[in-house]
């Protein structure tokens, strides 16, 4: 077994399931929002606030933001561990990889924090 | 025919190079790539490659022919040559020892990791450990692997993480023992594979299926290992 301290769950199976479940949630959210835009004509800001500010869409939106963060971390972590390797980056590959992971984690955290605050404020 | 061959002797050469060689093949006649190598070796005895059975059984002569991995002894020139030119390189992703000979230590280290042998904690019976025909049939398409490494060295996930990702050949063998009704170490075998790399680094590219000279399907075996992990883990 390969131990990885920076993987989301440190279990290949858990990461695999989280990535797939979050993808399904994001697909459903995208369909829901797309359906709303297709069904309703002449939407203005007020109508959007009412739609996205309803308790169910608020909860769904926050869930979608959390799923994006989890899905994004697993995907970006995988890309980083594939490409940032000693073969390409020499003896400092681990330092570059840690920096890359820190930047990704920070960006995802800021994005999730901002997204949750945004949905929360609509209520 | 023009043949471009990867040449590298670490004792003499600073860097690998492709060397152009010419070979006369009579009109209307096809040769196996191994025959081409044998003729080239007559021209230049320093050319190095592995070979043994010359009939696709031993798995020694896995090389890359015009960008595609395969066994030189059962691949005809007509199958791989493009515009009358044959380009021969060592299997990609493994360190080159010399010319077309690669160091397969990493490949066999991953193979060893899956414990490719029967584990049974029950006392051995006086005769054989018996299987029904149906149980035995589950091993078809799994036990035939000849460890030529064509699949693992065609896999980008193995190129990137050869020390952590078991690779298609190793995982095919892992499933061969997971599927064996006589093996009692299923839980331990699955626990050993439940990390982000060993199995789950497979991205389903399916190069392994495309190049396997025995027509095996490591991708399907990997999918079944994932299925077993899901059934055990949820």
Description:
The complex is a heterodimer of chains A (123) and B (234). With 123 residues, chain A is an all-alpha fold. Chain A has a single domain, classed as Up-down Bundle (3 helical TM bundles of succinate and fumarate reductases), CATH 1.20.1300. Chain A is 80% helix and 0% strand. Chain A has five helices and no strands. In chain A, helix 1 crosses helix 3 and helix 3 packs antiparallel against helix 5. Chain A starts with 11 loop residues before the first helix and ends with a helix. The mean pLDDT of chain A is 91. With 234 residues, chain B is an alpha+beta fold. Chain B has two domains: 101 residues, Ubiquitin-like (UB roll) (Roll); 129 residues, Orthogonal Bundle (Fumarate Reductase Iron-sulfur Protein, Chain B, domain 2). Helices cover 32% and strands 13% of the residues of chain B. In chain B, strands 2-1-5-3-4 form a five-stranded mixed beta sheet, with helices on one face. In chain B, strands 6-7 form a two-stranded antiparallel sheet. In chain B, a hairpin with a 2-residue loop joins strand 3 and strand 4. In chain B, helix 6 packs across helix 9. Chain B is elongated, with a radius of gyration of 20 Å. In chain B, 38% of the residues are buried. The interface between A and B is medium-sized, with 18 and 20 residues.
Q: Identify the overall geometry of chain A.
A: elongated
Overall helicity of chain B: 25-40%
Spatial extent as radius of gyration of chain B? 20 Å
User: Strand-residue fraction of chain B?
Assistant: 5-15%
Q: What's the CATH topology name of chain A?
A: 3 helical TM bundles of succinate and fumarate reductases
Number of helices of chain B: 9
How many separate structural domains of chain B?
2
As residue ranges, the low-confidence spans of chain A are none
Determine the CATH superfamily of chain A. Fumarate reductase/succinate dehydrogenase, transmembrane subunit
Q: Sheet bearing the most strands of chain B, described?
A: 5 strands, mixed
**CA radius of gyration of chain A:** 18 Å
Number of domains of chain A: 1
Low-confidence stretches of chain B: none
Strand order of the largest sheet of chain B: 2-1-5-3-4
Q: Superfamily at the CATH H level of the largest domain in chain B?
A: Alpha-helical ferredoxin
Structural class of chain A: mainly alpha
